[in-house]
Design a protein that fits this description.
By secondary structure, the protein is of the alpha+beta class. The protein has a single domain, classed as Cyclic phosphodiesterase (Cyclic Phosphodiesterase, Chain: A, Alpha-Beta Complex). It contains three helices and ten strands. A five-stranded antiparallel sheet has the order 3-1-8-9-10, covered by helices on one side. A five-stranded antiparallel sheet has the order 2-6-5-4-7. The C terminus is likely disordered.
Length: about 190
């Protein structure tokens, strides 16, 4: 892959170890039909915005704009499990206004960067598997506590679905109450 090839990007809430483990355990409790493709543990996430093909040379400018977006703490609660058209098994997430506000603020930044936004309403969910048309969710509903205070810029890597690399995580640029240090972003590469 060269610098001339565009990156295929999206923005996501990327779970830390504890909620990721809970999502993986819930995924593993499903009854998957033969041929179903469960999403790998390290690839479980909530997509905020799909960006699509984006020039690699423009990523630093986009990242600088994204770093200005304030992030309020977000409580994500498991909602209904569904199998969508095309055999995509998902767990919907119930989230308060903080998630929808973040989605809106990020959408404004992406629009300013020339990204065409998805016209469909935002539907917070985690994809659990693909090719899962006959899948059956567990009888016991998902139960976990997922608190998020950051979002990530992620690249879909060649080689199939569920191959992602977190290019950068963004924490709130606004210091928390009682925090004397300035807000920050983490620019580390984290593929898990």
């Amino acid at each position: 892959m060269s610098d001339r090839d565009p990156a295929r990007l999206f923005l996501a809430v990327w779970p830390e170890a504890r909620p990721r483990g809970a999502l993986a355990a819930y995924r593993d409790a499903w009854h998957w039909p033969t041929g179903a493709k469960p999403v790998a543990d390290v690839a479980l996430h909530l997509t905020l915005h799909f960006i699509g093909a984006f020039a690699r040379a423009r990523i630093p400018t986009l990242a600088a704009s994204l770093a200005t977006v304030p992030v309020q703490p977000i409580a994500l609660r498991p909602g209904d499990a569904e199998v969508w058209q095309g055999g995509i098994a998902v767990l919907r997430l119930d989230a308060g206004s903080a998630l929808h506000a973040l989605h809106s603020r990020l959408g404004a930044v992406l629009s300013d960067a020339g990204v065409d936004l998805d016209a469909r309403p935002f539907s917070p969910h985690v994809t659990l598997a693909r090719k899962a048309a006959q899948a059956e969710p567990p009888l016991v509903p998902a139960a976990f506590d997922w608190r998020a205070s950051s979002f990530a810029l992620v690249e879909s890597m060649p080689g199939g679905p569920s191959r992602y690399e977190v290019l950068r995580r963004f924490d709130s640029p606004v210091p928390a109450a009682g925090d004397a240090s300035p807000g920050h972003t983490r620019g580390d590469i984290d593929s898990g």
